[in-house]
Every structure is written in C-alpha cells, then in structure tokens.
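Page 47, continued from p. 46.
Same chain as before, 223 aa.
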Amino acid sequence: MTTMATGHTDQPGGVTNPPATVHDANNERVREFATRMFDAGSIARIAEAVVDIATSGAWRNYDINGHACHWQAAEFDYFLITCGVKYDDMREVFKGRAAAAALAPMLDQRDEQHRPLRIASEVWGPCPDGETLISLAKRYGWVTDRGRTRKPPVSRRSRARASGASREDRARDARRRRLGPQRCAELEELAAALAAKLTTDEMRFMADEFTMAAGRSENGDSP
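Result:
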C-alpha cells in the first residue's frame, strides 16, 4: 500500500496549524481509505471502503507525501492504482454488487474525462521514491504482460447499464437546454395538471403514446 501524506503538524513558537481546507479534508479521507484497505480482511470490507471513497469525491484532489494528485471525473482507476489497489481485487469487488453499476462511469476509459495511462502518468510525474503511474499500474496488475491497459474491472453488463443511463441523462439535459427554462417550466406545469387527472396505468399509456409520436416526428412521418 502506498504511504499517504501525514498532513500539517504544529509549528514551533506556539504557532498553530492553519485552518483546515477542503484539500486537507480530502487528504484525511484518502489516508483513512488507505488504512481501511490495509486492514480489510475480506472483499466485502474492500468494497465498502471503495464505495465510500468514490462517492466522497475526495479522490479527485489530494496529496501523497506532498505529491499532488489531480484526477479527472472518469479516472477513479488511476486513484486506485496510486493507493496500491490490485486490479484482481477490484474485479472481485464488482462481481454481483449493485455498486458496480454506480461506479462504472468513474472508470470509463472511453470517456473524454479519462486520459490515456501514458499521458496521465506524464502529468502526474514520478513520486519522490521514483514510482510512476505506469510502474504502479504494472505492479498492481492494471496493465497486461504486453504493456496494454486492461479493461475496467467492472462487468460488461454493469458498464453497459451505466453507459445507457449516462446517455439518457445527457439527452435529457440537452432537451432542457434547447427548450429553455421558461418553456420547461410551462411544460412541467402542464404535465403536473394532466398527471393529477390520470391513474398510474393511464400515465404510462400516455407516455408510450408520446414516445411513439416523438419517434414519428423525428422520422418525418405524419401522425
């Protein structure tokens, strides 16, 4: 396990530590994660620690022994590598666990927020002990014997499910931008008034009808 930064210490002459910052809090969360991983005696404990640090967001910006680490939104795998987490352990973590689908976008190598390993390693630079992101990735099994980056340790089904959800979210956001805030508010009011008059089955029926009508409109077909 890579040793984490120890943080601030009291200064001589009675000077106290500077006020804690978000960066300090992130360092503390990452150190706590490293300790939990070191003490974990089962895959279940590892999974719990991984989900906690992933959802905290602290992994995006922290220090290791004074060495700055800044990862993009889909580079959670690089964070795990710098913490000494083995690829095979992560593959076991994601087997049959619902958390896999939620974390999949954080390890999506196709995402624009995920740099190739070589580029990320160059930006990260070597640690004081000479380790690079690439050397750590090789040591902990995230790179094949031929030097190729392995696919994320998340099942194909989980990746597909997460990818589908991401596409839907992006499409929904794009529609709201095209319509504008005022029109969105008008349509939300209209939908609420209509929903108040319908049962759940009737609302689902109407949703199906609207979906088919939208498809015909996109294809240029007459209603």
